[in-house]
Design goal:
Elements: E1 3-11, H1 16-32, E2 36-52, E3 55-66, H2 69-81, E4 85-93, H3 102-108, H4 152-164
Antiparallel strand pairs: 1-3, 1-4, 2-3
Helix pairs in contact: 1-2
Length: 165
């Protein structure tokens, strides 16, 4: 039988236990169709990227499924009919991963303790803000660097003299 991973998002206003019950309901549908759910993970209440049906958050749940395609189609049909399910996605995979998913591993990490000393980048010299040279030096911005701009007052006086004539 093929392997599937299913992630669905339940409404934010249901309790966490209700979301787990919802996952159990969908697992029962898979088992009635001749398959089995090898893993159920509740990723918890998370913020959505955008509002869905007036919800800003949702309960994310993952199901690893080993079932025939007809059972998965029936489960998706029930997900479409259930008002508590905002979105779902089922993907066929070559093998089911064992242990925790990446989403739960991310939660278990230390607070960036394994990053070590970052230091300088090493591939380019570091410049301080005071290391820009004088304002006449424009660098790679063309050949404007050697000429000086007139001050605002001088430009205004020059424009007025030309306009009076």
């Amino acid at each position: 039988m093929p392997f599937y991973e299913n992630v669905f998002i339940a409404r934010q206003d249901i309790a966490g236990t209700q979301a787990d019950t919802l996952a159990d309901t969908f697992a029962a549908i898979i088992e009635q169709g001749g398959g089995k759910v090898t893993k159920k993970e509740n990723w918890g209440l998370r913020s959505l990227a955008f509002r869905m049906n007036k919800n800003r958050k949702g309960h994310y749940l993952l199901l690893n499924i080993d079932a025939p395609p007809a059972a998965v189609i029936e489960m998706e049909r029930n997900m479409r009919l259930n008002e508590d399910v905002l979105r779902y996605l089922t993907v066929r995979v070559e093998a089911l991963e064992e242990g925790q998913s990446v989403m739960l591993q991310k939660r278990d990490r230390d607070e960036r303790g394994d990053r070590g000393d970052r230091g300088d980048r090493g591939d380019r010299p570091r410049r301080d803000r005071g290391d820009r040279g004088d304002r006449g030096d424009r660098g790679d911005r063309g050949d404007r660097g050697d000429r000086e701009r007139p001050r605002y007052a001088e430009r205004v006086e020059g424009d007025n003299e030309g306009a009076a004539q």
